[in-house]
UniProtKB/TrEMBL annotation:
InterPro entries: LysR_HTH_N, Molybdate_resp_trans_reg, WH-like_DNA-bd_sf, WH_DNA-bd_sf. Residues 31-90 form the HTH lysR-type domain. This is LysR family transcriptional regulator. Pfam families: HTH_1 (PF00126). It comes from the Bacteria.
Length: 125
C-alpha cells in the first residue's frame, strides 16, 4: 500500500532532507514516488503532477543512483506493456518521509499558528 500524504491545511511544513552529499529528498520527489506507486507509470505520474516526463525521470534516476538499490524499478514495453513500481526501499522512503513530516507538523503547532496569524494580519494602507 502506498502511504498517503497528509491532509492539506492552511499551513504545513514539507521538509527537504539532505542525506549525505548525494541524496536529497523533499516534497516533490516524495509526491512523484507516491504517484508512481499509484499509477505504476512514470509518465502517468508526471502527467498527474504537471511535471515534464524528462524531469520526473531525472528525479527518480537521481534517487535510484543515490541509494545502493533502486527506489523505482521500470519495465520496458512489449506484450505486457511497460511500467514502473516502487521497490521496498521506495515504499520505506515514502513512509519514513511521511512520518517525519507528520512529526514536524505536530511538534511545530505553536510556531505554525504564529506564522498563520502573521499571514492573516491585514496589511497597513
Amino acid at each position: 500500500m502506498i502511504p498517503v500524504s497528509p491532509q492539506p491545511s492552511a499551513i504545513l511544513v514539507r521538509p527537504r532532507v539532505y542525506i549525505g552529499e548525494g541524496i536529497s529528498v523533499g516534497p516533490g520527489k516524495i509526491d512523484l514516488l507516491r504517484k508512481v506507486g499509484e499509477t505504476r507509470s512514470i509518465s502517468a505520474a508526471a502527467r498527474a503532477l504537471g511535471v515534464p516526463y524528462k524531469r520526473a525521470w531525472l528525479l527518480i534516476d537521481s534517487l535510484n543512483q543515490g541509494f545502493d538499490t533502486p527506489v523505482v524499478e521500470t519495465a520496458t514495453g512489449g506484450k505486457g506493456g511497460g511500467g514502473a513500481r516502487l521497490t521496498e526501499l521506495g515504499l520505506q522512503l515514502v513512509t519514513a518521509y511521511d512520518a517525519l513530516e507528520k512529526r514536524l507538523n505536530l511538534e511545530a503547532k505553536e510556531e505554525l499558528a504564529v506564522l498563520q496569524r502573521l499571514a492573516e494580519r491585514p496589511t497597513p494602507e
